[in-house]
Amino acid sequence: MTEQQPRVGVIMGSDSDWPVMEAATAALDEFGVPYEVRVVSAHRTPHGMLSYADSAAGRGLQAIIAGAGGAAHLPGMVASATPLPVIGVPVPLKHLDGMDSLLSIVQMPAGIPVATVSVAGARNAGLLAVRILAAADPDLRAKMEAFQVDLERMVAQKDANLRYKLTHPE
Amino acid sequence: MTEQQPRVGVIMGSDSDWPVMEAATAALDEFGVPYEVRVVSAHRTPHGMLSYADSAAGRGLQAIIAGAGGAAHLPGMVASATPLPVIGVPVPLKHLDGMDSLLSIVQMPAGIPVATVSVAGARNAGLLAVRILAAADPDLRAKMEAFQVDLERMVAQKDANLRYKLTHPE
Amino acid sequence: MTEQQPRVGVIMGSDSDWPVMEAATAALDEFGVPYEVRVVSAHRTPHGMLSYADSAAGRGLQAIIAGAGGAAHLPGMVASATPLPVIGVPVPLKHLDGMDSLLSIVQMPAGIPVATVSVAGARNAGLLAVRILAAADPDLRAKMEAFQVDLERMVAQKDANLRYKLTHPE
Amino acid sequence: MTEQQPRVGVIMGSDSDWPVMEAATAALDEFGVPYEVRVVSAHRTPHGMLSYADSAAGRGLQAIIAGAGGAAHLPGMVASATPLPVIGVPVPLKHLDGMDSLLSIVQMPAGIPVATVSVAGARNAGLLAVRILAAADPDLRAKMEAFQVDLERMVAQKDANLRYKLTHPE
Amino acid sequence: MTEQQPRVGVIMGSDSDWPVMEAATAALDEFGVPYEVRVVSAHRTPHGMLSYADSAAGRGLQAIIAGAGGAAHLPGMVASATPLPVIGVPVPLKHLDGMDSLLSIVQMPAGIPVATVSVAGARNAGLLAVRILAAADPDLRAKMEAFQVDLERMVAQKDANLRYKLTHPE
Amino acid sequence: MTEQQPRVGVIMGSDSDWPVMEAATAALDEFGVPYEVRVVSAHRTPHGMLSYADSAAGRGLQAIIAGAGGAAHLPGMVASATPLPVIGVPVPLKHLDGMDSLLSIVQMPAGIPVATVSVAGARNAGLLAVRILAAADPDLRAKMEAFQVDLERMVAQKDANLRYKLTHPE
Amino acid sequence: MTEQQPRVGVIMGSDSDWPVMEAATAALDEFGVPYEVRVVSAHRTPHGMLSYADSAAGRGLQAIIAGAGGAAHLPGMVASATPLPVIGVPVPLKHLDGMDSLLSIVQMPAGIPVATVSVAGARNAGLLAVRILAAADPDLRAKMEAFQVDLERMVAQKDANLRYKLTHPE
Amino acid sequence: MTEQQPRVGVIMGSDSDWPVMEAATAALDEFGVPYEVRVVSAHRTPHGMLSYADSAAGRGLQAIIAGAGGAAHLPGMVASATPLPVIGVPVPLKHLDGMDSLLSIVQMPAGIPVATVSVAGARNAGLLAVRILAAADPDLRAKMEAFQVDLERMVAQKDANLRYKLTHPE
C-alpha cells in the first residue's frame, strides 16, 4: 500500500484471499503504480461494495482488481457500478479447483465486462492493470516494454542453465 | 400476477428469462399462492436490485425466486440483502449449457445461502416456494400432500398406458 | 442436539458425513433452532429412509437438511416422501471433488424440488433452514437480520486489519 | 412385452424415457428373453418403487434394467431393495447432455452396485442383461457368441462396401 | 485367490492397480465366491489379453472384473472377445481424477456392453459379480439378502452411536 | 472500420470469426472509438501476427481485441509481443462449446496477461476496450456512465412491459 | 484410395465414421500420399483389428490414422500391436461432444503412445501423417513448406477481403 | 543431451517443466536417438521461439517435442513455423489438473496439426518421436518391436509376481 493517490484499487471478498491477491500488489509495486487494498464483500457488505464501486472513479482510481472465489460476484458487481475497467481474479476454493470461480467471473452478460485472468492469476491482474494505465502513459509503457525484454532474458538464462546442467552432469 | 398481497417475489435479470421463469409462476398459481413478477438486474440495475432486496421482507414477501444465466449474480446478491429464503434458478444460455449459471448460483460462500434448483428448473423453484410457505401453513401443506398423491396417480396412469400400448400393438 | 421438540431434521447417509454436516447444526445452535440428527441411508436403509420422510412433518419438523455424497440420493428421495422443504448438501468424496454429489442432488425432475447448497456447504444449509423458519417467525427473522449486520461488521474489521497490517510492516 | 414369465424387468421413471429405453427391449427380443416393462418413479412413486424392487426377485425376475435422467435415482434405489443385478441407463435430458444422469447412476456408494452403461446406451443394457442370464444358461451363451460373430461379419461387410465405394466412384 | 475352480476373473492392467482392485476380491471372499487374479494389459499384452478373454468362458468363469485407468481399454476389449458379463472398474490416475478412466470404460458402442461401477469402486464390482452369479444361485442370493440386512443394521448402529455421542458430550 | 487513426485493433484468426467479432466493432462504433479490423492468424501467419503485435503500439493503437477458437493462441501470442492491453474473445467452435477456447485464452502464464471475456462475448470486449481508453479520457468515461444509466432505463422498461403484459392478458 | 502401395492406413470403427474421416484422405490426396481405407473395429472385430495392426508395418505402411468415438479403443489398441506411429482422431458421438472420445484416445499409459488430434480433426490427422513421412522425405517436406506458405496467402486474402467489405458497404 | 547431431528437439516453456519433460529424453536415450534440450517460451520469447521453429528442419531435426502448461501455446506455435511433426505434452499446472493444457494443445485448427499425448505424458512423447523416426529407419523400428516385446515380458512378470504373492501369504 502506498502513500500516493492510489490509481488502482485491489479488493477481495475476504482477508483469506490475501495470500492469492498479494501478487497483484507486488506487480504494481514493481512498476511504481500506487494502489489501495480493501476487503469488500459482495455478499456480506452489498451496500458497502456498491458504495466502493460508485465512488471509485471520483476518488481518482483508474482500474480495479477484484478477487473472489466460488460463486464469485465481487468483480461483476463492482463492474456494474463503475465505469472503470475491472479485472477479475478467480480465487480457487477448496473444491472444484477454481472452475466455479472462473465461470462466475468471466461469463458476464452483455453490457458489463469483466477482464478476467487465470485461476489464481493475481500477478497477471497486476500486470494487466499496468498495461491499462500504460495505454495513456508513455513512461509506464516503456517500463512494460523493458519488463518484457527482461522476461526474454530470464528465459535465455534458464535455457543456458538447463543446457549447462545437462552437459555437465555431476 | 395476482391482485392479492404477494407472498413470493419472482424476479429475473431480463425479460428474455421469462420463457424459463414462467413455470415458477404457473406452479404458484396451481397452489393459489399470490406473487409478484419483476425484471431486476444485478448487473444493469445494481442499486435497484439492492432496493428490491432490502424492502422485500417489509413488503410482506416470504420468499424470493430469482432466475439468472451465465455469471448469474442475481440470486446471491438478493440473498445478501434480505433475510428471506432466496431460491435460485440457473437459466441456461446459448453456451456451456447452464453449467456456468449453476455454479455461479449454488457455490455461495458461507453466510449467505441460496436454495438452488436444477438448470432451467423454474417449476421446482415454484414448488419449493410452496413447501417453504407450507412449513408454517397447514392448509398449504395439505395441498402439497395432495399434489404428491396426484404425481403418484399420474405415474400409475402412464405405467398403465405404456403397458397397454406394448400389449396392444396396432 | 437439543432437548426441545426439534423443528429441523439433520440427516446424513453415514456417520462419515458428520465432519461436514456438523456445521449445519452449529448454525442452527447459533439461532437457537432445535433440531435432531440422524444417520439415514437411502441405499442401505431404503425403507427406514422412507419411514423417516413419511413421518417427518407429522412429528413437527418444518424442514429437513440432508447430506450425501457421490450418487447422492438421500435428499431427493426424502423430498419425494415429505411435503417439507428439503435442503441438500453435496458431500465431496475422494474423487470428482463433489461434482457428482452436486449434480445428483440439484438436477431433480419437475415435481420434487431439493434446495441445494454448495459443495460441503453445510453451514449455509443450516442458515437456509433458519431463513425458511423465519419466513413465518418474526423473532427468528430479526435474528437473521442481526446476523447479517454482524457479517458486515466482520468484513469491516477484516478490512481494517488488513489495511493496518499493510501500512505497518513489521 | 412377452406373455412368458418375465426374466428381466425394464423400468423407467417416465413414459418420456421410452424412446430411449425401447432399445433395451429390442435387444431382449432378439435373444428371446421374456421381460416386463413398467413406469416406476423413484421420486413420484417412492413407495411403489420400493415395492417393485422388494418383490422383483420373488416374482422370478433375474435382472432389472432401470433408465432415468438428471438426478437419476431409480437404478440405485431399486438396487438398494433387491439382491438382483440392476443395470442403469443414463437418460440424457435437455441440458448437461447426460453427464448428470451418468454420475448420478454410476457413483454408487460401496455396498450397493449398479451396472452402468453409456449415456442413452439402452441397447447395451439389454445385451448386458442377456450376458448376465447367459452366465448360467449355455443356450443363451451360445446365442451371444453367435451374435458376436454376426457383429464381426457386419463389420467385414461394411469394410468391403466402403472399399468398393472408394474404388468405384460414380 | 482360492483353490477352487474360479467363477470370477479379476484382472488389471498393472500390479499398480492392485491396491484399488483388492477390494473386489475381498467382497468375493466374503461371499465365498472362488476367483482368479491376473495382470493382463490391453496395451502391453494385446494378444495375451485376447487369449485370456477368448478362453474365459470355456475355463468355467462366469464373470470378469477388469480394472484400468486413463485411456482404459481393458474392460471393453475383454468384453469384445467373451460372451461373459464384464464389470469395469475405473482406476483413477494421478491426473483428471478418474474421469478419463470412467468415460473410457462406460461409453462403449452398441453391441459390446461393459457393466461400469464408480471410480475406484472395486468393492462394488465384487458385489455386482456376486449379484450376477446369484441370479441363478438361490444360496448366493440368500447370502446377498442377508448382506443387505447387515447393511441396514450397520446404519442403525451408526445412527445410535452418533445420537449417543451428540447427547453425551464429554 | 473508421477513417480516423484507429485506437483499437480488432483481430481474428479467420474471417469465419467475423459474425462473432462484429459485435465488438458495433460497441466501439456506439462510443465513437476508431478502430481497425484485421484477419491475423497465430497459426497460419505466425510471422505476420508477431509483426502486427510488434508494431501495434507504435502505430497508435491503445488496445487490441483478439478473437480465436479451439486451441486459441492469437490473444496470448499477440500479448507476448506488445505492451498494450489485449482483450481475448473465446470463439466457440462446433465442438466443446467454447470451453477449449476459454481455457486456451484465460489460463495465461504469469508475465503475459490477457483480459478475457465470456464465450462469444465480443460486445463486452468492445465495451471493455472503451473502459480501458476511458481510464484516461474523461469524455469517454462520461459516455460510459451515460451508457450504464441507459442500461438501467432499459431494464426498468422491460420490467414495466412484463408487468403490463402479465396484468393485461389478451 | 490409390492404386499405389499405400504408405498410410486410414481405419475407423464403423462406416458411420467416414463423413468425419474422409477429410484425412483428402489431405493425403493433396500431397499425393498413397493410402488404404479400412473399417476395422476394436470391439466388434478384436482379432481382425490385431491382425491388421500386426501386419501393417510388414505390408509397407509407415503410419496409421485411426478414428473412433465414445469409449474409443481403436487407436490405442492398434498402437499396442504395431511399431508404427498411430494418429488418433476423436470422433464425436451424439452425446458428450467428443470429450469421451478425446480422453479415451489421448490418455494412453506410458509405453504405447497415440498421436492425438482435435475432436473431429481428421484433416489435421492427414496433415500430421504427411509431416511424419516428410521427416525422412525431402520432396514431401518441400510440399509441406509450400502448403504452409499457401495458408499464409489464404489468410492475407481473407484479411484483404474483410477489410474491403468493411470499407465498401453496399 | 548428446554430442551427435540431434534428430529431435525437446523444448519447454520454462525450466520448471523439466521434471515432467525429462521422461521424454530418457525414452530417447533408451533408443539411442540424439536430441537437444532447450527452454523456449512462446509467451516470453515469441521471436526466439519462431526462430527456433524456422530453423529446426534446416538444422537436421526430424521431430520436435514441446511441453507447456495452462494456456499452452508452445507446441501449436512451433508447429505453425516448421514442417516437422510436433509432439505436444500437456504439462499440468497447480489448478485444473492439466485439462486446460490438454485442450490448449490438442484443439488445433485445421492446417496445423500437433500430435498430442496424455497429461504429463512426456515418456510417450519420446516413444512417439522414436516411432516417427522409425517409420523410415528399419533398425530403429526393430528396436521398437523389441521394446514392445519387453513390455509384454514385464507384464507377464508382474502377473506371475502378483499371483505368487496372493498364493503365498506371509
From TrEMBL, chains A, B, C, D, E, F, G, H:
Name of the protein in its database record: N5-carboxyaminoimidazole ribonucleotide mutase
Which Enzyme Commission number(s) are listed?
5.4.99.18
| HAMAP family the UniProt entry points to | PurE_classI
Q: Which SMART domains match?
A: AIRC
GO MF annotations, alphabetized: 5-(carboxyamino)imidazole ribonucleotide mutase activity; phosphoribosylaminoimidazole carboxylase activity
Q: Does the keyword Cell cycle apply?
A: no
By sequence similarity, the record places it as follows:
Belongs to the AIR carboxylase family. Class I subfamily.
Q: Which UniProt keywords apply?
A: Isomerase, Lyase, Purine biosynthesis
Isomerase as a keyword?
yes
Query: What reaction(s) does this enzyme catalyze?
Result: 5-carboxyamino-1-(5-phospho-D-ribosyl)imidazole + H(+) = 5-amino-1-(5-phospho-D-ribosyl)imidazole-4-carboxylate
Q: What class of enzyme is it?
A: isomerase
Q: Which InterPro entries match?
A: PurE_ClassI, PurE_dom, PurE_prokaryotes
Q: In which pathway does it act?
A: Purine metabolism; IMP biosynthesis via de novo pathway; 5-amino-1-(5-phospho-D-ribosyl)imidazole-4-carboxylate from 5-amino-1-(5-phospho-D-ribosyl)imidazole (N5-CAIR route): step 2/2
Q: What the protein does? A: Catalyzes the conversion of N5-carboxyaminoimidazole ribonucleotide (N5-CAIR) to 4-carboxy-5-aminoimidazole ribonucleotide (CAIR).
Residue ranges of domain PurE in the record: 6-155
Q: Where does substrate bind?
A: 14, 17, 44
